[in-house]
Amino acid sequence: MSLRRTLHAAESLDAVDAPAGVVARAVRRIVGRGRVDRLLRGAWLGHPVHPLLVTVPIGAWVCSAVLDVSGHHAAARRLVVIGLAATPPTVLVGLADFSRLDVRQRRVGLLHAAGNTLAAGCFLASTRCRGHRSARAWVLVGLVVLSAGGALGGHLSYAQAAGVHRWPADTV
């Protein structure tokens, strides 16, 4: 099966509808529909903030692998930690966007979130390793999983147009 067909298949995975609905309703209940919601979703910018923030953990983690391969192990480890520190705000704004998705988009969004959570767990595990080889292995696995999560996020943004033209009347 091609990557394109696999990404489209995620839209039909109705087994995740119940948990995705629970998460969306919980976020809407906590964030509401007021200023906080508009702030987190990027109404002030005219498009979602989440795609902008994801560049920080992704960039930090990819660069950490490059630095590690070039022998700068301490700097690589610091970048992994920077990526982990940037993850919570990235997740927060992603959840605010998720709460407004339709059913098919939520299917992809939940898989995207699950993959990226697993990737963050791999990077966290890399910081806990005492041996350099095992830390490098966790980072490599994390990059592979992050790539899959990123592909799902790209599909959500570009193929499913999540967050497109959502705020013409919103102001913060």
What's a quick, concise take on this entry?
The protein is mainly α. The chain has helices at residues 3-10, 17-31, 35-41, 50-53, 55-69, 73-98, 103-128, 132-159. Residues 46-164 form the DUF2231 domain.
Report on the structure:
Keywords: Membrane, Transmembrane, Transmembrane helix. Pfam families: DUF2231. The chain has one domain. The chain is built from eight helices and no strands. The model has no long low-confidence stretch (mean pLDDT 92). The chain is an all-alpha fold and 172 residues long. The longest helix is centred in the C-terminal third of the chain and has 28 residues, at 132-159. Helix 2 (17-31) packs across helix 7, helix 5 (55-69) runs antiparallel to helix 6 and helix 6 (73-98) packs antiparallel against helix 7 (103-128).
Keywords:
single chain, 172 residues, mainly alpha, 8 helices, 75% helix, globular
Report the count of strand segments. Answer: 0
In whole angstroms, the N-to-C terminal distance is 44 Å
Mean pLDDT: 92
Structural class by SSE content:
mainly alpha
Q: Largest beta sheet, briefly?
A: none
Tell me the domain tally: 1
Residue fraction in strands: under 5%
Spell out the helices and strands N to C. HHHHHHHH
The level of helicity is over 70%
Give me the Rg, rounded.
17 Å
Q: Tell me the overall shape.
A: globular
